Structures
1.
Amino acid sequence: MAQIETRALSHSYLPDPDYPADFALKELDLNLLDGHAYALLGPSGCGKSTLLGIISGLLRPTQGEILFDGQDVTHLNARQRHVAEVFQFPVVYETMSVFDNLAFPLKNRGFGREAIAKRVAEVAELLDLSEQLPRKSATLSAGARQLVSLGRGLVRTDVNAILFDEPLTVIDPQEKWRLRTRLKQLHRQSGLTMIYVTHDQTEALTFADTVMVMHEGRILQSGSPSELFERPKHKFVGKFIGSPGMNFLHCQFDGNAAIVDGQSIPLQRPYGTDIDGSSFELGFRPEYCEFSRDGSGIAAQLIDVDCTSRRKIAYLNAAGAKVCVSLPADQEIPADNHRIRIDPQRALLYAAEILVAERP
Amino acid sequence: MSLRIENLCSADDGVTHLQDISLQFDTNSFNILLGPARSGKTSLLRQIAGLDQAGSGRMLLHGEDITRRDVRKRDVAFVYQEFVNYPTLTVFENIASPLRVRAQDKQTVARKVHEVAELLGISDVLDRHPPSLSGGQQQRVAIGRALAKDAEVILLDEPLANLDYKLREDLRRELPRLFADKGKIVIYAASDPNEAFLLGGNTVVLDKGTVRQTGPAATIFATPASLSVARIMSEFPFNLLDANVENASCTVADTISFPLPAHMDSLSAGHYTLGFRAEQFSFAALTPAAVACDATVAVTEITGNETIVHIEFAGQSCVAVVAGTMTFRAGDTITMYLDPDSLFMFDSSGQTVASPTSSQS
């Protein structure tokens, strides 16, 4: 078990990096608490897998250092750091039984027969694999094989952390649910530090206590799932979290209300008086706006409607931008004269793509 | 004009992939093959493409038997889950390749490539090579080749599965439009029920190599023919409880009991399986008939504006999804409510014997 810190960590895949754009990771100072579950979330190329590689010891960072419980491990390899890793594709010996797969790392380290049997039984219990122990690994589902991969890392008793690199990619939607819940229970039972890399917001938000949203080599925001949803600190986070993402409309700001398309939306928050006056945008979630039924609100043209089993998503043009409105599947969309009303309590003000802070 | 599949079966090494498949796909239609892994989606697409040989049965395109026709002679385009492009050719040449095969003149090729690239929003990367592009762009190139080929039948095998989800959202919205009103038969394999809803069109539910149900996604969702269909059409794990029907009332494992709602009143006494979706659990009694269920929390997941609660109820693992952020600890006892009018009932063979009328509107 370990607290994991990085100090001024940066990484470039180029031999002679110079410009900021040359770096896949840019000056990262992290402090990951012992026993916490973290997710690194971002689009491909954001640096999340690079960061995971540096934590696991597969990659040596260009600059900076990494510490486990205060000890500098920057120059230790993956094995010496005692981290268990789970990758996209299960890594198991197909011809071996589940038991032999789990026992393999212990046999290699010269453990006795009884010690092996005891430890394998413990790990199998933890992963709900006890009944599968005699089975050939090749006959297991993809999800169960992922658990066996994980188990091979866990049988060692000195594990500092478990790292997951998109572990549900090849798993069926239905099985994904079971495996994700299993991982979450495992976190609670084992108390191990877990770091989970994914580009899928649902996986990140449901798995982690703290989600770190990455973009272009930086962590833009780190917070609980509901913080990221309710108060994205950066426009990118607002757009990336949520399906569809947050709406943004250009607006003026008079110190109290946002003015969009001539309409005043009273935000009534304790904003400071020294806010930079350029490029304001009002951010609001598709879930926090609705079709006005009384002629008030911002005029909009309906472009299209998508229906899922539970929600309707209306796509509109309003105030020169695209806006989505999410409503329950059983609610009707007005036939014409579309106007959108934004919930002022839940709308947020952004200046130059950054959330405008309120006074405490 | 259509593609007809009649009693198609396929197997190899004693493993059955497809079992007595009969389907019709019309010209100008968008069709979804929905099913879990190994349900037969890819097998069926490969049969239609001519990549695999059928064991028995026939395939007719506009009435003409194409069952034994060579893959090269079928007018079919195939887009795979992995982004399959020619890595050493430019994007332009990738899209142009099916046109070159047909030896079309230079100007026609250039015009068509630009048309397709424009439609897919990749005009600015025509000079680049696929490996230098993002996943979304690479898949657009593969789709571009299928469009340029102008085949009558377009097969897409989970084409969005390997994309980042934001890119997936964009491309999913564009796809049906790309092929609409062009006289094509589009067949799209998916494992996520939401794709069936969002892409629209005709849904074919496959399971274990068999067609379980066909129709619009919303209709199948409201009236699944069987337990397996209800499960495949469900976004969250579908909840199941053993139930006993007797004297016009329903009892679940000695924990809850309620008078049979109207849509179940023709059920005879006996054992059944009660089924319902995660969203049917609520934290308040929404109707006078609502039944209180005391459950134990196993795991809570927060997705931003919704909370997914995994609970133990009546000796079964169930899933509830509710609006807002709820924080429960594992082991907490909570009371949730179920409206009997919203429940499905299945017989011992897994066939649906009662669907809630509220969901059929």
2.
Amino acid sequence: MNLPATGTPPLRAIALLSATALAYEVLLTRLFAIIQWHHFASMIISLALLGYGASGSLLTRLGTVMRRRFADCFVGSIFLFTLSALTAFLLAQRVPFNALEIGWDLRQLGALLLLYLLLAVPFFWVASALGLTYLHYGAQIHRLYAFDLVGAGAGALGVILLLYVVPPVAALLTLYALGLVAAGVALLETRGPWWGWLVGLGLVVLGFSLPAPWTALQMSAYKGLSQSLQVVGAQPVAERSSPLGLLSVVRNAAVPFRYAPGLSLTAGTLPPPQLGLFSDGEELGAITPFTGRLDELTYLDNLTSALPYHLSPQPHVLVLGAGGGADVLQALYHRARRVEAVELNPQVVELVRDDFGAFTGGLYDRADVRVHIAEARGFVAGHRQSYDLIQMTLLDTFNTTAAGLHALNTSALYTVEAFQHYLQHLNPGGLLAITSWLRQPPRDSLKLFATAVVALERLGVPDPGAQLVLIQGWKTTTLVVKNGAFSPEDKATIRQFCQRRAFDPAWYAGMQADEANHFNQLEPPDLYTSAITLLGPEREAFLERYPFNLRPATDDRPYFFHFFKWRELPALWAKRTHGGLGQLEWGYLVLIATLAQALLASVVLILLPLWLGRRSGRVPAHGPRGRVLVYFTAIGLGFLFLEIAFIQQCMVFLSHPLYAVAVGLCTFLVGAGLGSAVSRRFADPRRAVRWAVAGITGWALVSLLALPAFFQWALPWPEPSKWLCAIGSIIPLAFGMGMPFPLGLSLLARTAPGLVPWAWAINGCASVVSAVLATVLAMQIGFSGVVLAAVMLYLAAAAVTPPLRIGGVTVGGPSGSLQPPKAADSSLPAKAQKSWQYVALGVSPGSAPVGGRPVGRTGWSSPYPPDQGPLRAAIPDLRQRDHAGSPRLREPVRIPSQRRSVISNSSRSV
Amino acid sequence: MLSQRWPRFFLGPLLVLLLAGVVPAGAVDFTTLRAQMVEEIVATVRLTQHELGKPALDARVLQALSTVPRHEFVPDSERPHAYDDRPLPIGAGQTISQPYIVAIMTDLLDLKPDQVVFELGTGSGYQAAILAGLVKQVYTMEIIPTLGDRARQTLQRLGYHNVSVRVGDGYYGWEEHAPFDAILVTAATDHLPPPLIRQLKPGGRMILPVGSSFLTQQLLLVTKADDGALRTRTILPVRFVPLTGGR
């Protein structure tokens, strides 16, 4: 019937193409995080990925024609992908989009739409190339999908490695080259058209002749780096690039950088002239000069973060987030006995140690300073060492914090469990100090306080208030948690420390109300009354009432920066012109806007192919559309739900966001590829789906119960064994998850091939929606809720697996071949019998032979080679279908309408 | 797709913004628009009187707002929007503040005609022009040369002779004219330069906006008492209800 192509599909080209596309997607996120802001980057790319869904429409409309000239169209699509991958980004850079102005200026929405459309083009073409191949080689979907996934896995891993080696723009050009290689391989594999080589040559020449200014990154003028480079005397002096970010150092002799966040108003001394340090164009802090003379660093004693040093003389300090070195210097200034500093990004350390080693006075090479390259939480939890002071200051830049842009970032650093780790690694009397930006109304400061209270309670501390101190300056607050109760002497020191620096205590046990808000007055709600309430019996009511979400983050819901409450939105929007816009938590709103847009666009992109197909008669008027919709939506959503939830688990366990993403993504894709490859061995696809779903459900539920405890236990293990554990926890799941898509698609290719492009569109859209929806859900119900939701989706998919019958035709037979209706079936009119022949052969009476060869005489045998015999399922049951009232068998001219798209195989396929 | 992107209650205001955006530049009478802008600010202040602690702004501040031609301080492309109550881009990654914010910041300084004011961050020069009508002398510094030069020319052309503009590092204030009765810091900053605090007269006031470009969240008012003691107060233009238990 379907007469799928029988030759070997262009498997290597598919794998290469898939690798390039996934690498491109990751790279785009990186590029947009640099020129715009991270959350807008994910929104733009999510929407652009709907190009995958849009390709379904193309294939529905033109699939037949394209299959007839498969090689031309396949190679052409790859060229169009490659060309547009490069040009779409270069053009997108020129779109005058300013994310910050969105609340003020509707024109920005137009610019945003333009960005979506531009960037959707490459994804549209790559999806068309892949989808066309799935359509064309319907019988070999399992192999194709396996190569597709394994390629994508390699792409995910490859692009991370690539970004370590070359800067982002060079990576873009590398992927352009890789796209051309994929086209070349496709030309070889499909014995493609001669013009392909010419086009390829032209594109190679184009790649080499691009003028440098065209490919330079155009960073938003409102990012800290752009702004600082406008200042008279500014000079970029160093740059480093890795997947962790683009680091830039700027020197300015005329207007030196001076970074002393929240410096006391009474401070007499200035910070020394520093170097500006930027990550992805946002201020990360500064590199502070050090001549060995500590008296030049007095300013470091005039920050709220200096308090713990007055409570713990000559401590053994662990600085989390070494950065440009200010916190290490602060420790040295206060005569710390030993300083250990943890920094995630090795290039930051490289800059301070190597490029500016003389400038920083060899700070990171001192005998009393030791710098560790590690993720902070994992470092603390993975070692037995305990400290007198664990110091964490302002790890997040003010601008992004102020606009609420961190809302979507999961942060393992600020969860209740993380606090428990920190507290368990304090010596008796040791201190944990966390400094954050003071926002009004207070958000970060109070959530940290609430988190500490819960962590202390969980550790069985009877009176958490006695172990907590909170002080506020005009711009920052510092929370200090002690392993033990603060003594009266401690409290006297705190009062004195604040008094001298025009800071105010906001909480310590036994504090008088009139001590608060003396130097720095906040409008209510102030910190002091809020802190008291958080420690008292009214905590729950307070959390409920407070205009922002202050509920402590947990490992299951690690969104510390999610402060948004829907309840406040109408009022803030009404007051947007007088301060309301500034109070909106933009990160969350952007996420919701992304979801809304993705859903809307998906509805269009899913309905469009149906409408197109119906109009042209390619999509049957009847058939399992409801089932197909639910099935492919459910597995599309479920796949990414599980993938995202498990990668999140690995983030804490592997203690490094990149390792987690690289190991997680790669394992999922490769595992699913294996699953796909194996799935074709099942005789009964429907049963195979059930087995796969049973496996997924079982493994997911067991993981949900056992994995957190296991990971907790295995946290101190050496890296390689932890990686193996992570891979081991994912592989079985991924293996099962790789099956439902190719099984469903190949079922469809046999029973309702007109719906294959539609399923492709649904899957594309569901994947995009899924990634966004997973985050929204995780914020509300936690990652365990996301896993449960995924399990239910897979169960739903199993329940609605597309039937083996459609339009009166059931495919396959025990012999692996299509069979005509039994001769005895006399109820069937002769006309219908004849039509069955046509259907089985994939020929409609009206259709012309394709490729100059008649297709009608391939006989009854399956077009599939016996060893691949996917048509082993059921026996035709025309009568039953006939009773069901399908009139189509009686009207052969109408039956084959859905087949036309399918029978027009390229000449190679028959 | 464009119009469906936001929840329903976003739509109305956005449509209004859209309509405001398509008014052709040529057909605009700036004097009328300016009067409308001031009316709008007066109305907003009345709405937010709880937050601001006063029912109306100083009449002199309103007078200044209704005379300074804001359209002269914005790039040509933004002129049609010059009297919208919103911040506008002025190039070099900088913005001209929202008129409402300019109004309350100026008002909070409680200026007298014989005073001398320092401004850190000239930007477009609009804020300096407002101040020029209220005090004896304004000293303003800008670190971005293109902006500073352009502001100087605009202010001269419009006849604001009591404003001195200098391009350079404002971190050290302007020593030869110190001390100042009031200081405005228009650029977001992680700390207040100690030299600037020293150049503030006892009894003087300093004000700065807190937030990021286009999104002012609150204002910080620093007062220096006659004895030199420093205090800060945060002024939040938006009121949040309900408040915490104790109050």
